[in-house]
Amino acid sequence: MGTESTDTTGAYSAEKISRRFWWVVATLVIAEFTCALGSNMITSALSKLYGIYGDPAHVTWLITAYTLTSAATVAICSRLGDLYGRRRLLILMLLFAAGGSVVSAVAHDLNVIILGRAIQGASVAVLPLAFGILREAAQNRKELNVGVGMLGGTFSFSTGIGILMGGVIVDYAPWQAIFIVTTITAIGAIALAWTFLPKDKPRVVDGKLDLIGGLFVVVPIAALLLGLNSGKAEGWNSPQTLGLFLGGAVGLVGWVIYELRLAEPMIDLRLLRTPQIAIVNLMICTTAMAPMIYPQVLMPLLQQPVWTGVGLGMAATMAGFVKLPTNFTSGIAGIFSGFAAHRYTLRWIVILATGANLLAWGLLIIWHDSVWSLVLASVLLISPAGTIMFGVAPGLIIDATPPDRTSEATGLTSVLRAIASSVGSQLIALCLATSMVSNAAGARFPDERAYLTTFIFVAVCSLVSFVFAVMIPKPGRGAVPAPVPAE
């Protein structure tokens, strides 16, 4: 036995990364970069669009439609990748990104642009597919670890770059040129994927694919969100508004019943019977609903004209530069959370993170009339707290999940987080639309009272998230459940 022992560190150092693998990683990074641009560049245009269309709730569907589509595609694409090949699915999702971008780039009607954004949102499924392709392509542990690290760091970095690029476009070109950029990057990623990603191997997968559960989860959610828009425009007692709310509620109940009847549902809601899984998901959802989509609040406030009485009058490019340091502090926070997880319980880490969010938004209610207050809150508290919480919280779900159901549990969390973000985008837009101010040219923007209402809403969500974090069972107190039986 003694002759068989090896120095694993030395063996790892001796492993080499092939040139072929570097091309695979580069391709996946470009694909991920395309998704990040599609997700975040539009944020830089929100203030301009509020002025053009005068309806924050309608404009925010540019984000909501994207997020709702991403929730459905992320839910099903990992299984579709097993059935039909991850490379094939990744190229298809990039085609959706390119096609949706073209629709939004050439359209003039806001509703058609929103449709293009919905098509573009399917590309978010590139992210889980990329990790699967990476694992298949890696020939040794060093390749896998390096590839995972590069993919993990790309999205956070790309977020800041995307907002900055969007700001430059908004300042110096027609705002819809954003979609020309995403079209070009998507086409480039498709060419690279076709050339350098390894071809899919034949697969045999048992079990049925729950397409209905994966796709139609977004339908009742979309109806409820349209009800919010209708309530503002048509009145909360109008037949259209009541019909959308009723239809959405009935559809959501029907979807839940349908999923619970399946032995192998796409989104296994039975996992929420475990208290720790349910509480952690509630914490993640209330955070995703408002505190962690903070660019949708702060970026328009930075750019809004000074004559509105609350805006800081900053150019979109400069606002992007102001946002950029949050990516640096997020990176540091991610490294810190990895080390902290070895010394402290995950529960205490998320309690501190949610507490930092609550502190930040509480301060912004009082002090939001200067660039420094927004920068300090986002750079020092909000962004690092989100990175820490979303990096550590899945560990609490894994700890409470039977080993053979880990993918299902984390997949459920991803879908719920995407839906919560969609709902939060519309609720924030509704808050911003509560009180408007206009000038002689007809441009309309949220006023001081609307922003104060929004800050209070986000602070309340932060408080609820903090309460859920405190409610997470302590280690050894029912955190590890018995397996959840399929019905």
Task: Sum this structure up briefly.
The protein is mainly alpha-helical and 487 residues long.
Structure commentary:
This protein has a two-stranded antiparallel sheet with strand order 1-2. 73% of the residues lie in helices and 1% in strands. A hairpin with a 5-residue loop joins β1 (436-438) and β2. It is globular, with a radius of gyration of 23 Å. It folds into 3 domains: 17-201, MFS general substrate transporter like domains (Growth Hormone, Chain: A); 211-265; 270-482, Growth Hormone, Chain: A. α2 (19-40) packs parallel to α9 (141-172) and α14 (275-288) runs parallel beside α20 (406-432). Mean pLDDT is 82; it is low at 1-9 and 477-487. The chain is mainly α and 487 residues long. It has helices spanning 8-14, 19-40, 46-53, 56-59, 61-84, 86-106, 110-120, 126-137, 141-172, 177-196, 211-215, 218-234, 239-261, 275-288, 295-303, 316-323, 325-343, 346-366, 371-399, 406-432, 448-471; strands at 436-438, 444-446. It has 21 helices and 2 strands.
Give the topology.
Layout: H1 8-14, H2 19-40, H3 46-53, H4 56-59, H5 61-84, H6 86-106, H7 110-120, H8 126-137, H9 141-172, H10 177-196, H11 211-215, H12 218-234, H13 239-261, H14 275-288, H15 295-303, H16 316-323, H17 325-343, H18 346-366, H19 371-399, H20 406-432, E1 436-438, E2 444-446, H21 448-471
Antiparallel strand pairs: 1-2
